[in-house]
Amino acid sequence: MKKDILSYNMEELCAEMELIGEKKFRGKQIYEWLHTKRVHEFANMSNISSSLRTKLDENYCINSIKVVRKLESSLDNTVKYLYELSDGNHIESVLMEYKHGNSLCISTQVGCKMGCNFCASTIAGFRRHLLPSEMLLQVYEAEKNSGRHVDSIVLMGIGEPLDNFDNVVKFLQIISFETGKNLSLRHVSLSTCGLVDRIYDLAKYRFGLTLSISLHAVTDEKRSEIMPINKKYNISELIKACKDYIEITGRRISFEYAVIHGVNDTQADADGLIKLLKGMNCHVNLIPVNEIKERSYRSDKNALHDFLAALEKGGLNATIRRTLGADIDAACGQLRREYEF
Ligand code: SAH
Question: Which domains does the chain have, with CATH numbers?
Fold first, then answer.
């Protein structure tokens, strides 16, 4: 099988070239074609000899993904892409416009194993991990297709990024490398349902990214009911890992809390959240629930605003996430579900 050349970081690509009897600098040249010039055919790499281009063609493939549906909001500049991967699987990305620039939400897996019961991405289960190239291509294709520059990236689409740890790390290395997209990891957020062991692994890299924790409940009983991962890593283990992460990286953490009416939006829930997070270097992002047709969950506007007021009164730093692209909205993973199943 041909090797996936877009998934190599610079160091690996240079080592690959030496492995096939070429000079190391060829790796640099090819990397520049792939990631800076975004030329994705060996035949068009004009400073590479034809004999090396033939060798590359024989041993490596340049992965690609295809836009099969594109939904554009008429309310704001949100664009939702449904991509087809080279094996026929589908994933989603969403391009959103904020004051500080364009942000792209990308997928990290085809499907998801985590089983959070409010999330559409997990309903049909897990198919496979995405390769680093498939995460990069979501960015490259969105930029090419929209003509817009992606200024920040959130790993909040389909999948659990920390369950695809090595590929996500490789993606982060490539997207932030000076040759190529050269995106500061300060402009990247990674969201996890709370794989505690992997949070410690991530901390060791000391990336400047923002870690987002999908918390959604403040008692183990409630959290385990809506997020099965809590049975493996409970809230106190998760919070301990977060505190260690803040200590090791010096970065504040963002807690995601989907406010679900009748499930987690009472004064007692707000009090629990305040108790849990008080004094931590963190921010709470309240998310109005995206209604998915498989569940009856919804947010109540008044309860949501009362919840925010309670958190602020309790001294937490909290905001309600703005809803973008409401007219093209399909909660996380829903577009793919409509298309595939
Ligand atoms: N697996 C990762 C990232 C993908 S989900 C994680 O769990 O964090 C991205 C965010 O959307 C998470 O905070 C997730 O809990 C939230 N989410 C999923 N379904 C939702 C829904 N129907 N309404 C609101 N937020 C939802």
Answer: 3-61 (1.10.150.530), 66-340 (3.20.20.70)
